[in-house]
């Protein structure tokens, strides 16, 4: 039977409905409260620690994101840990929850197609994460104004906004992964555990796997510098298959203007460069552009995989 109308009919109805559900759900409110409290504590400690260096450091606001003090890690470290959990909690029951409530066939019987339903759920999750991240970014900036007593420069604001977009792309990876598992598995608990298992694998075990694989595939014997360099390059390539590594390198490039390379540095790369001089924001963006596009590519590939699986899935009343 041929479909009539646009495949995106009803898209914004799905987005608004899912967005309202996410923002009003108890689990999301509890997770957001936990993120806000930990981010507030980390930022407050960092701002108190940086007060003495306000006059000396032209990028003092960027240090608010990356400075930590024992026992509290930095604001960026908190985001790297909690964001995947928030994204997974938004997407693990997106489709299988509709199956279990027997509402999927009712929704699709309306002038809402599968295309609009899946994309609407994904966009609602991205908007929810974006609203939360924007509020966190404004919280950090406001605390910096109160404690440090100086306003951020235009370049610091630009780097902060780029960091915000990069963080949203990183969260989109885990949201899309949870969405895929919600299509594959019919039980929400199974999809949540599968997504958590993937996150833990990349967060804990991937570096170990990379080291073992690099040493096995590119052994360096007898102190050969070329073999050692080949091993380092292979390890760097394998580590960048992890979204955690891509996000970490994005943070380093965007929030530390003095960084000039994200890999092995050769003498020829430093010709004409003034050491310890900050890069303009445009150059830092060019440096981190491959990592940013890698995250976006991961989001698109995961969503495309979930889209194909969902289109082939049988829907019963």
From TrEMBL:
Species name: Candidatus Segetimicrobium genomatis
GO cellular component, as recorded: plasma membrane
Acetylation in keyword set: no
Residue ranges crossing the lipid bilayer per the database entry: 33-52, 72-95, 116-140, 160-185, 192-214, 288-310
The protein, known as: ABC transporter permease
Organism classification: Bacteria, Bacillati, Candidatus Sysuimicrobiota, Candidatus Sysuimicrobiia, Candidatus Sysuimicrobiales
GO MF annotation terms: ABC-type transporter activity
Keyword Transmembrane helix: yes
Keywords attached to this entry: Membrane, Transmembrane, Transmembrane helix
């Amino acid at each position: 039977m041929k479909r009539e109308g646009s495949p995106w009919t009803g898209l914004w109805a799905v987005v608004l409905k899912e967005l309202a559900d996410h923002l009003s759900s108890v689990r999301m409110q509890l997770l957001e409260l936990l993120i806000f409290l930990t981010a507030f504590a980390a930022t407050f400690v960092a701002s108190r620690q940086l007060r003495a260096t306000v006059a000396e450091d032209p990028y003092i606001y960027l240090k608010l994101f990356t400075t930590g003090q024992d026992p509290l890690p930095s604001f960026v470290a908190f985001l790297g840990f909690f964001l995947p959990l928030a994204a997974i909690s938004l997407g693990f029951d997106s489709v299988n929850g509709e199956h279990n409530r027997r509402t999927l066939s009712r929704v699709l019987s309306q002038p809402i197609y599968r295309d609009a339903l899946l994309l609407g759920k994904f966009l609602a999750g991205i908007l929810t994460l974006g609203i939360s991240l924007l509020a966190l970014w404004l919280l950090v900036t406001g605390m910096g104004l109160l404690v440090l007593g100086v306003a951020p420069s235009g370049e610091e604001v630009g780097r902060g906004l780029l960091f915000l977009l990069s963080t949203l792309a990183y969260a989109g990876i885990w949201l899309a992964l949870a969405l895929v598992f919600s299509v594959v598995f019919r039980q929400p608990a199974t999809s949540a555990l599968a997504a958590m298992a993937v996150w833990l694998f990349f967060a804990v075990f991937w570096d170990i796997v990379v080291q073992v694989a690099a040493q096995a595939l590119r052994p360096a014997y007898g102190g050969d510098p070329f073999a050692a360099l080949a091993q380092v390059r292979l390890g760097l390539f394998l580590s960048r298959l992890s979204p955690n590594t891509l996000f970490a390198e994005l943070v380093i490039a965007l929030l530390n203007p003095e960084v000039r390379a994200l890999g092995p540095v050769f003498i020829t790369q430093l010709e004409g460069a003034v050491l310890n001089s900050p890069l303009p924001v445009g150059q830092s963006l060019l440096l981190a552009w491959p990592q940013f596009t890698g995250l976006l590519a991961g989001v698109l590939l995961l969503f495309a995989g979930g889209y194909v699986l969902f289109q082939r899935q049988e829907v019963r009343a």
